[in-house]
Amino acid sequence: MSVQQPSTVEPLAALPAQTGAAPLPEWTALGPVLALVAAGLLLLLWDTVFPNRRTNTELSVIAAVGSLAALALSGWYLAAGTGRPATGGAITLFAEAITIDGLALFFTAIVASVTTLVVVASRDYLTDHETPGEFYSLVVLAAAGMALLASASSLATIFVALEMVSLPSYALVAYLKENRGSVEAGLKYFLVGAVSSAIFVFGISLVYAATGSLLLSDVAAAFGDLGDLAGVAGVGVVMMIAGFAFKTASVPVHFWAPEVYEGAPAPVSAFLSSASKAAGFAVAFRVFTEAFHLGGEVTAVGIDWALVFAVLAVVTMTLGNFAAAVQTEVKRMLAYSSIGHAGYALIGLAAISAGGSHNGAVMGASMAHLFVYGFMNTGAFLFIAMVERWGVGRTFEDYAGLGTVAPMASVAMTVFMFSLAGLPPFGGFFSKYFLFAGAVFNGFWWLAAVGALNSVLSLYYYSRVVKAIWIEDPTDALAAVDSRPTALYGAVIVAAVATVVVLPGFGPVIETAEAAATALFG
Amino acid sequence: MVDAFAYVPAIVALPFVSFLVALAFGKYLPKGGAFGGIAATAGSFLLSLWVLATVAAGGQHVETLYTWVSTDGIAGGIGPQEIELTFGVLIDPLSALMLVIVTLIAMLVHVFSLGYMNDEGEPDLPRYYAGLGLFTASMLGFVVADNLLMAFMFFELVGLCSYLLIGFHFREPGPPSAAKKAFLVTRFGDYFFLVGVVAVFATFGTASFAGSESFPVLAEHALAGEFDAWTPFGLEAGTWFTAVGLLVLGGAIGKSAQFPLHTWLPDAMEGPTPVSALIHAATMVAAGVYLVARMYGFYVLTPTTMAIIAFVGGFTALFAATMGLVKDELKQVLAYSTISQYGYMMLALGAGGYVAAVFHLMTHAFFKALLFLGAGAVIIAMHHEENMWEMGGLKEKLPVTYWTFLAGSLALAGIFPFAGFWSKDEILYEALVHGLNEPLLLGAWAMGLLAVPVTAFYTFRMVFLTFHGEPRTDVARDPHPVRWNVKGPLTVLGVLAVVAGTVNMVPVQKVLGIEGIDLLHLWLDGHYGGFSELTSHHYAELGPYSSGYIAGGEVPTVLIGAGVSLALALGGLGLAWKLYNVAEPAEHTAALGGVKTVLYNNYYQDELQVRLAGVTAGVASAADTFDQGVIDGVVNGVSSVSLVSGDRIRRVQTGVVTHYAALLTLGVTGLILVLGVLGGWFL
Amino acid sequence: MVAPEYYLLLAAAVFCIGLFGVLTRREALYFLMSVELMLNAANINFVAFSAYYGDLTGQVFSLFVIALAAAEVAIGIGIILVLYRNFGVTDVTVPRGMRW
């Protein structure tokens, strides 16, 4: 879309980077995104051809196949080293508007895994709904937007991809058209989202005004000498932070999150709080390292962005955890806990210093945390989806004794809660451990300390769920538990297994994440 | 020859298997899985003895079993060097000894549980035995850990198991809240520990305990300028090591129930009594002291940390002992005595008495397990009545329990020649000789010494109220009999409480000059087997202390020290005898505390006793008030502040979307203004 | 040629007018219109600085923004419709079933 001459492309970067004899053509690097788009279109087609099917199994299968294909492709590329320095560096497409590198593939893998879990679980959640076709296509197309967001390297593609994520999300949140909670959540999400994206695009326009380009690399170059426009660029960057904060549910644009996660259908809450948040972080990581000199010398703007993120991280995690501690409904508690986890992940942007020896390690640990979070948080929300489907209530008290009627799922929920709290030996412990360790190594021990204190508090409210499920006596409400939704059960169990399997498999995850993050700082 | 060390993982694995078996098949097994637990712990015990013998024959062992994270080859990896996170085992004299203690106590507790849980018809036995198995397994894993991170993980697991076991009777109101308190308070300390672990990795790039690349050794080199350790903000290595040491100490203070994180322990008495025995004697509470002993080579390098450990220990010893004076329930008295005794161990560690601390850890394990199991026997006999004022005169009805309980009490009170005398005396001796040149340490010693008569007093107040005098209730007149499975463990521990002191008769050696009877000193000094950097004389060389003597030499110091503490203990015992060893004792301390008009002078006090009792009761109730009011107040205060502020925060969330837009705008505008001023954008 | 800072001021003014509308208007459609104003403030910047730098990127991007704004309105109208069906109003401050 840019008529500007692409800045000098390194010859190596143009090389296809697959291992093996015959390198694939360059566009195949976009394979995961294309798989998701194809699945989305196929879903629409299927829905048009068979508009009156009473079962949504086929739709669920198509969506799952598409997202699994995206997961497999991104996993394969990650394993093969596509877009990594070892195989010739990042692959850029469309005049540098899109960059496929370790970061893009890593986050695509997260998004694809969460999408798979969500679409599989939705088969049971959406039984008896009239128009499941649009639900699946919206989910898969939003996932395509997220994957694109992770690989966007021009402010134009970033904004377009961001809207590609947001617009389907608004509709998904309000999907239960007869449910006042869902509609209210959709309205709030849409209004706050519209304001945020307006602020975001205004921020982009200010950055464009100051630098004359939308490409991240050109913006970075122009930031070296901004002249009188340093202030304009600074205001623009802050406004862009607001846009990222909206996507990641961080302070100061977190207000929508509790209501939206509470009111939305639970699989959508899972999707938004895991995948959408991860995609928001992916783009924030890329923009701030590649364009705004995070981890480099302070530019003419005169602000060390890491410090801004440090303040936001502390406020976000504290606010999320403190508010979560006083909730009475499990879903809303998880919503606030999601804000708290955004605060932890922000450490990946905050504990960065110019020339810090562990910049890559911290950001990589944050990515790994989002990876683990993708499984444990999705699993927790899907458990809630199952409870909602049964028609058991929403408060902690209503969960009393669930362990007696649904033991397997309750074990899974226990794993999610303890993992979210960061107890060993679950995945959440390792990622948090590496995150805090990286922060300490980079000299931000106080961030790690605040994070650790917040984790103590978080244990309180997570253990309330575990206590309710296992220790408290069952109530009559549990008579409502009359079915075993297979797909929903399966998704919850798979998420739990993944949360635990991360224990032995954490090495590759953290290595990939750190390598991808280190490449950004390179 | 088959290598005993190859079986070390099995020591940990056996109780874990019993946990799995009890969990999965407990319902179908006789006695709810008890026999599996007994067999597993007995197997572990035998293996531990074998390991002990191998170490005695000159063996030592450190091995990495599993590497689960290795940063080899990651660009920019974590830490100053390449870091590997591993699981491994470290067997040296300290861990071999601790293995034997833990497995022995665990085995006896399992046997005792047959009498306490099965015979009493408690429900949910599989859950109980599963918890016991996991608890033992995690403690054993902690004991053999060869690095700080693995130790931390098992340390956490120990805490989790204690939560499950203390809250065993979860249908009653008390136990779940006690379990929660234990969990949260110890976890509070553990978070400091976690930060400490990270700091150790950051500083040294390793967390191993043993070997030339272990962090205590590297710290030694760093202080000598031979190793360049990472420190934040360019701190001096010594200052930073002090901070790291204190962070890790946070975990130890929480688990070992030292002031100010001791509040969970008395509440933890809500758990079944055999669990209390296990927690207090061999597992959870011992873990804190063991941790400090395990990485003692690191602590001795920083005098400030040592002084803090000693002072906290001495203070806790005295503080908890005074509170033990006014408790009416058998297990409560024992709970405070545990806090106090672990205070002694911390005092010893802080005072450079490494061997003394381990010695007391060992003797205390025996006599405290004995006392708790004895208390359990009394509780069975009394149909789960725990108030001592409802007992009395049980001596004739429960002879085995009485005599073994008496042996344990004499040991606890530190009466010659019972086990506790030798170890407590050595602690006070070490604190004294090192404290003569260190005023702060001398203060800690003084508090430790003051606690001696208090300990003797409350111990025998407990003995006399429970066993002596006339039965005060119908139940006490006709107690429930106990069976072999209660008497057996009591007898074993009773014998140990009498004789365990003989492994380390240092005073006798020093006074009479007989060489070689300080077996424990030789043991921990690597005379049989072990690593040279983990020996007591190595620690002594590194330590900050020098010895001073009173009355002109070592022998008089030994004699005077032992004499004074024995005299004080006997004094406390005598006072208790006078007040409580009567047909119908009265509640002197409690009744006389706040009451100005003394109505009870027809009982055995003259003016002096009244005043004495009044003063001690005043101190005790002040300490108790402090405990309940201030410490609990702070803990509750912190949590309610969090909850109240959480409540405030959520009130911002009014539900009106326009308000959100306004707040959002305010937030972004605020950011722009602050950053703009900082960055000079508006100039 | 008009100096670029005037465009910046104009854009900022339009943006603030839009923001003011967002904060004060309770009617959903006015809310949407106000957001449109904010988006178009960005477009002013894009077009002005595109001309200033002699580079078409900004102009093209403003077309993208317009298209996305239209899509956003489409979704928004749909949500307002279900809002009206469920709550009987189009006042955005009425739905407040979930809070705290």
TrEMBL record, chain A:
The keyword Transmembrane helix applies. It comes from the Archaea. Keywords: Membrane, Transmembrane, Transmembrane helix. InterPro entries: NADH-Q_OxRdtase_suN/2 (IPR010096), ND/Mrp_TM (IPR001750). NCBIfam families: NDH_I_N. Its main location: membrane. It is a multi-pass membrane protein. One of its GO terms (cellular component) is membrane. GO terms for molecular function: NADH dehydrogenase (ubiquinone) activity. Residues 152-458 form the NADH:quinone oxidoreductase/Mrp antiporter transmembrane domain. It is found in: Membrane. One of its GO terms (biological process) is ATP synthesis coupled electron transport. This is NADH dehydrogenase subunit N. The lineage of its organism: Archaea, Methanobacteriati, Methanobacteriota, Stenosarchaea group, Halobacteria. PANTHER family: NADH DEHYDROGENASE. The chain crosses the membrane at residues 27-46, 58-78, 98-121, 133-152, 158-177, 189-209, 229-246, 266-285, 305-326, 333-355, 367-387, 399-423, 443-462, 487-506.
From TrEMBL, chain B:
It is a multi-pass membrane protein. Its main location: membrane. Keywords: Membrane, Transmembrane, Transmembrane helix. InterPro entries: NADHpl_OxRdtase_5_subgr (IPR018393), ND/Mrp_TM (IPR001750), NU5C-like (IPR003945), Proton_antipo_N (IPR001516). It holds the Pfam family Proton_antipo_M. It is found in: Membrane. The chain crosses the membrane at residues 6-25, 37-58, 94-116, 128-145, 151-170, 191-210, 230-254, 275-293, 305-326, 333-359, 365-382, 402-422, 442-467, 488-506, 555-577, 660-682. GO terms for molecular function: NADH dehydrogenase (ubiquinone) activity; NADH dehydrogenase activity. One of its GO terms (cellular component) is membrane. Residues 81-129 form the NADH-Ubiquinone oxidoreductase (complex I) chain 5 N-terminal domain. Residues 145-435 form the NADH:quinone oxidoreductase/Mrp antiporter transmembrane domain. GO terms for biological process: ATP synthesis coupled electron transport; electron transport coupled proton transport. PANTHER family: NADH-UBIQUINONE OXIDOREDUCTASE CHAIN 5 (PTHR42829:SF2). NCBIfam families: NDH_I_L, PRK06590.1. This is NADH dehydrogenase subunit L.
UniProtKB/TrEMBL annotation, chain C:
GO terms for cellular component: NADH dehydrogenase complex. Keywords: Membrane, Transmembrane, Transmembrane helix, Transport. The chain crosses the membrane at residues 6-23, 30-54, 60-84. One of its GO terms (biological process) is ATP synthesis coupled electron transport. One of its GO terms (molecular function) is oxidoreductase activity, acting on NAD(P)H. It is a multi-pass membrane protein. The keyword Ribosomal protein does not apply. Gene3D superfamilies: 1.10.287.3510. InterPro entries: NADH_UbQ_OxRdtase_chain4L/K, NUOK/Mnh_C1-like. It comes from the Archaea. Pfam families: Oxidored_q2 (PF00420). It is found in: Membrane. PANTHER family: NADH-UBIQUINONE OXIDOREDUCTASE CHAIN 4L, NADH-UBIQUINONE OXIDOREDUCTASE SUBUNIT ND4L. Belongs to the complex I subunit 4L family. This is NADH dehydrogenase subunit K. It comes from Halopenitus persicus. The lineage of its organism: Archaea, Methanobacteriati, Methanobacteriota, Stenosarchaea group, Halobacteria.
